[in-house]
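SEVERITY: medium
COMPONENT: batch folding queue
REPORTER: lab tech (J.R.)

DESCRIPTION
The queue accepted two submissions in a row. Attaching both inputs and their returned structure tokens so the on-call engineer can compare them side by side.

ATTACHMENT 1
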Amino acid sequence: MRWCLLLLALASARGQDTCQSSPEPQYLLFGTKTAYNYVNRNLPNLNPQNIPGCQAKAIWLLNRHGATNPEADELPQLQHLTAFRDNVVKNYNNGYDKEPRMCLGDQSLLARWGWIPRQNLTFAGDLTTNGYMGTQELAQSWVSRYPSLLTDNKHDYLFKFAKDKRSLESFHAFTAGLFRSRPEDLELPQVNDETLVMPDKFCPTWSRDIGDSNETLRQRDIFESKHEWEDMVANISSRLGFTYNIDRSIIKDIYQMCRYNKAWDITQISPWCSAFSREDLRRFEYSEDLETFYKYGYGSETSPKLACPLIKDMMDFFHKHVDANVPQQPVSQILFGEAPALLLLTGALGGRRDDAPLTGDNFHTVPTQNRKWSSSVASPFNGNLAAVLYKCNPNGNFGYKDRHQILFLQNEQTMDLPFCKVGLCEWPDVKVRLGEIADKCNLDFCNGAASISGVVGLSLGLVAFFVRYLF
């Protein structure tokens, strides 16, 4: 009898692992297409961010846009999922009974799924309704935290963003959350600066040697060539009712649809997520982390240099407030960028650095499972990175050495940086660490020829990186 109960329990646990319609919690971290709510659910109540003995004097804030429609180059493949869905439904209607398989609830959800007509070339890449509202809510959250800085006075602000439609939508949504009014009616101080907020798109040398290089994807490709990845493909194919392995590109399209659905409406279940177990989703997340680590993070010597204009912009802003004897405006400098900007800046600041580099061979190790570098957390939809200047009483009970302190926050949570204490940094330490980066900021290499070009140069660079990282 005990053995029967054990078998039933195991079968139940297995079914729940692949049943999105069950009440069990699902895995909700989807790399750069993670909903903001999934990475900051444990935030305390939105009370003002108080630091004993200190007053907030200025805030510098870099924001990523909210959830978007698929990009133009994604639409054809994702639209084909309608026909693919019909094949999955047919498989189950014909009595498919192999394991693993989807539960009845997920089968029903997938059968009712349909393509949204608005997801077309006209609106490709635009903010969704949820993305627009989420950006408004984010602005209101920052107001709750720093009411003395995010005021109704438009002269307290300077906004910087690109000229593209998505950046303008983000600007409009954020300022609507700040002022409850249309930004064009307010004549808000603003600057268009694509090179600042999209540094990866204006550096041909980086694009050639890092961004568009197959060598950058080597560790990701090693990971996806593992036998366990092939086993995952087989399990996903079986779960969808096929007796053979479906094409990997289709599986990646399904994953893309799964995470788009979860970002568009966090209250709804995505039927496409039922194709994956929790461990499958962890693998897909790690695959993207391997890509972002070597493209925008510590896996590249060049990439952190692209963030130096952002650090210079931040430092120039704070110097104006620290060095002046009278209050300065603006007190809030707010930028709107893309996921690469957040990842590049995270790396340039020294945040989310692990003791060892991520590789295609160490997925199952404890350090990797508990890794700090996470594209889901560092650059979700509506991801943000803020630095707040405080003026403090150095003679207080809290032992501030300098009158000025900087608090770094990522997604409204304290950021762990090597030169700070629980996110709070002495201004002299910030000047030493970040001031040097700002003073030496030079992107002339972006338009120059690499000293060693192509795959050979990048391969040698990766070898040198591993030696430095480990020793």
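ATTACHMENT 2
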Amino acid sequence: MKSKVNRELPDDLMKKLDYKPFETTEIGNPDVQRVAPKVHVSTGDDKIVSSIKQVVADTVKDGMTISFHHHFRNGDFVFNQVMRVIIDAGIKNLTLAPSSLTGVMNDMVIEAIKAGTITNITSSGMRGSLGDFVSHGGLKNPVIFRSHGNRARAIEHGDIKIDVAFLGVPNADRLGNANGMEGNAVFGSLGYALMDAQYADKVVLLTDNIVDYPNTPASIKQTQVDYVVKVDKVGDPDKIGSGATRFTKDPKELKIASMVNDVITHSPYFKDGFSFQTGSGGAALAVTRYLRQAMIDNQIKASFALGGITKPTTDLLNEGLVKKVMDVQDFDKGAADSMHTSGNQQEIDASWYADPDNKGAMVDQLDVVILSALEIDTKFNVNVMTGSDGVIRGAIGGHQDAATGKLTIISAPLVRGRIATVVPDVTTVVTPGDSVDVLVTEFGIAINPKRTDLISALGNIPGLPVYKIEDLQKMAEKRVGKPKPLEFTDRTVALIEYRDGSIIDTVKEVKD
């Protein structure tokens, strides 16, 4: 069995888990039936529980699915506190279903796997020691990786059935009204956690800041919450945006950013009222700065900016260059503070952001998207999941979701150190080449041959060399040589879903 991007899929797992292979990026217009959570009706005056130990005893049983969010990023204190109690309680065979896994969770997840506490994981991604552990066969069952929009779809369909959601928040009242904008560990939008709050059978809020009732504005509402637990400290605000929003001084990154800006401003989509999504890395932030100046020079304003939001984007909002910011996650304190003060910065949940099975996701309205890549191949397929050694070290995030924009740009260096970024075939296909329009490197750009309109528009711009992607691949190989083929066992350690729930590729166990 093969997916449409010519990747072999394991027949046994496909049948066992009732999966279909990836066929097309065109989702169509299906009629879908959503699920609903169980509701334990409460008319009480107080949902506060004395301890994590007590709430775990009341809610978590063997074989359940539990979830967490990752809005605290590397400042998260909630996950390890809860998992410590669950492991010590001897609970087994859990499915872990967080919106994503960050580095501060790795050691605890590995301990939980070794203890038999966690036997299944579904997430957007994983990195570091956990990715290495899973890549070498450490988890009993394959990880299922889903994009942010696909996770929302899977929760709404019942493919992910959350028994208990543990959601850390910087504030809550005694009945569970909470937001991400006030307290000592603010992170802004609760976009990913809103799905868990709506669909989990039991919702547990953890906070270090119990406030007066009723707490408004309420992103998570008392109608959704079963328990509120007071903890000493819910997170470290200084680590929420650590490393995510550095302003680059790297000449290579600045050159790539300048070229990305040239592609955008010479495209047919750069006009008054256009919309865009950028990332949070150094090159992406530099693009935002270049784009700001181009918008000023051309007297162009954007209708909205989307996605994970940084302060440079909210600065555009405050300057009047962007009319609205649609915010599913904040990557720094500046963006989080802006959501608290600006009525034009709208908190959105992951379904509104990117679910392919709803009545209109925000990603479907995007004109321009800038995304990164660990690898991109000569068919424009993109890998953001595994490294050149085959080890899991990334996340789908919103990559597949945002790539549905009218102009999808991949910005990446030709090589990283002694490793080629542009390759004959990516190690793992995450985003199919049909979704990608332009690759921008420091040496020049490559345009997907299917986009003849962009070839005409971008073909003769001074200082913007245009290559065939095969030529960029050969250029990269000439610099770093041809790598030794990776060796894997036959065992599948992860399944990569496309955003419609089909399987686009797999990750095999790395051979020692």
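NOTES FROM REPORTER
The first strand starts at residue 48 and ends at 49.
No errors were logged for either attachment.
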